[in-house]
Amino acid sequence: MSITKRLPLALLLAPPVFAGLLAGCAKENEITAIGGSIGQEVQRTSCPAVGVPAYAGDVTLFDPPASRDARAIDVVATITDVKASCDESDPNAPTLTSNVTFRVDARRSSAQGPRDVVLPYFAVVLHGGTAVASKSISRISVHFDDGKLTASADGQATGTVSRADATLPDNIRNRLIRKRNASDADASIDPMADPSVRAALAKASFDLLIGFQLTQEQLAYNATR
């Protein structure tokens, strides 16, 4: 299971020069908050949440490369089976690392001969939903056997964040987890409606996003098809 996120095109195309959620983290620092009148449940850990950005979860190769005719489709590949693990059980660890595994399923138009297709993919840590904290580019090779139209390959990525930056202040945490009785004056007030609470959550939120490193033409194709 993965979450799909929509990101600015510049972020997806940006080179690696920077410094859709899976429950892969330990539960010790998890927060469960119940909103007042609407009964909204919010679950959160300090580990980066993991997902695949919109339009970056698949890539289409054409032959010839400049064509966008359906008859010229050469290879289509998709990122799937995204899984994450993150251990936040050690309170003295200064950083938290999410380790991600995924599978790339690919299909080619001709089964003639063996073939290897190398595809670049990125792992970007996003802070507060908009700021790029780090980005790395890797490559995955998919091997097609002779006579086979389909192939798969396993990939992996990691993302590391500061525990201090990803931890909510105690006053915000206490507001979220405090149990309220029906007789309380603020029983019907959802703490998530407070801008200061939402701002603190955003400041302490990190996402680890995995996707294909697309060219501008490939991204435009995904966005408009």
Q: Which key terms come to mind for this protein?
A:
about 220 residues; alpha+beta; 4-stranded antiparallel beta sheet; 5 helices; 11 strands; about 15% helix
Explain what this protein looks like in three dimensions.
The protein is an alpha+beta fold. It has one domain. The chain is 16% helix and 43% strand. The chain contains five helices and eleven strands. The longest helix has 9 residues, at 195-203. It is elongated. The two termini are 24 Å apart. Residues 13-42 have low confidence and may be disordered.
Largest beta sheet, briefly?
Answer: 5 strands, mixed
**SSE order, one letter for each helix or strand:** EHEEEEEEEEEHHHEH
Strand order of the largest sheet: 1-4-11-8-9
How many distinct folded domains? 1
How much of the sequence is in beta strands? 35-45%
Number of strands: 11
Number of helices: 5
- State the helical fraction: 10-25%
